[in-house]
Amino acid sequence: MSELETILLRRDEAGVATLTLNRPEARNALSVALMSELDSELARIARDPAVRVVVLAANGPAFCAGHDLKEMRALQGRDEVAAVFALCSRVMTAIVRLPQPVIAKVHAMATAAGCQLVASCDLAYAATEAKFATPGVNIGLFCSTPMVALSRGVGRKQAMEMLLSGRPINAGTAERWGLVNHVVAAEALDSEVASMARLIASKSAHTLKVGKEAFYRQLEMGLDDAYALASKVMTENMLAMDAAEGIDAFLEKRPPVWRGC
Which of 29, 47, 75, 209 is the most exposed, having the fewest neighbouring CB atoms within 10 Å of its CB? Predict the structure, then answer.
């Protein structure tokens, strides 16, 4: 098995695809190879109707330490540096654009682009011991790309505090600020994430897809345009087969049988 096959692991079970960052010796730093694997795997998942939910996890003492700084320092010239940040942005955007919901399972420290990775996911669960930081300012490199996801996940002043100070916040603060949904004991993290993943996977894949897409599109709109989009999406959703089945099942007091359309 090659390095490219081992730095990112995938396990599928009952409609849930778990992607696990597997560079524990490098604190799961986002090397070009790892980001390329993530990019490719997300593209495959987007085309896989059997996958209803994605869980993003990591092995080792950290969730993700951000970019691989040794690799970054070895880059030659503007074009090589720009290509790395373009790849990173593509991966983060792919998570947001993915038809399936993505849950971050954060067991430990997530810093810089690792924090960006968490903020880009639709949901995030964290162990009590987890911490989050955008510490680029400490080494003369403002976390500008992590800023995009972070500023869309927490309040402006909270995001600026993290970006300007570089100080880590604990899991409880991350929960209060909205960066993560729930904080649980480390030993309960797997079961809590699995429970939520199973719950979401039980829903109509078609409904999840149209709803997730509409959620992110309307965030960037003014109020009138957002309601116009939402009304259009709900009209199309209402006419879908899964909506008819869901309503009939509710009225008939039986479980729905989703068709994915």
Answer: 47
- The 10s digit of each residue's pLDDT in 59-77 is 999 999 999 999 999 999 9
Domain spanning 205-251: CATH 3.40.1010.20: no
C-alpha span between 238 and 24 (Å, rounded): 46
Whether 39 contacts 91, CB under 8 Å:
yes
**Alpha carbon distance 249, 195 (integer Å):** 23
What's the whole-number mean pLDDT along residues 92-107? 98
CATH classification of 3-201, choosing from 3.40.50.150, 3.10.20.90, 3.90.226.10, 3.40.50.300? 3.90.226.10
pLDDT tens-digit readout, 105-152 = 999 999 999 999 999 999 999 999 999 999 999 999 999 999 999 999
Does 3 score more than 50 pLDDT? no
Determine the Cα angle at 199 with ends 10 and 215, to 5°.
Answer: 85
Contact yes or no for 230/214 (Cβ under 8 A): yes
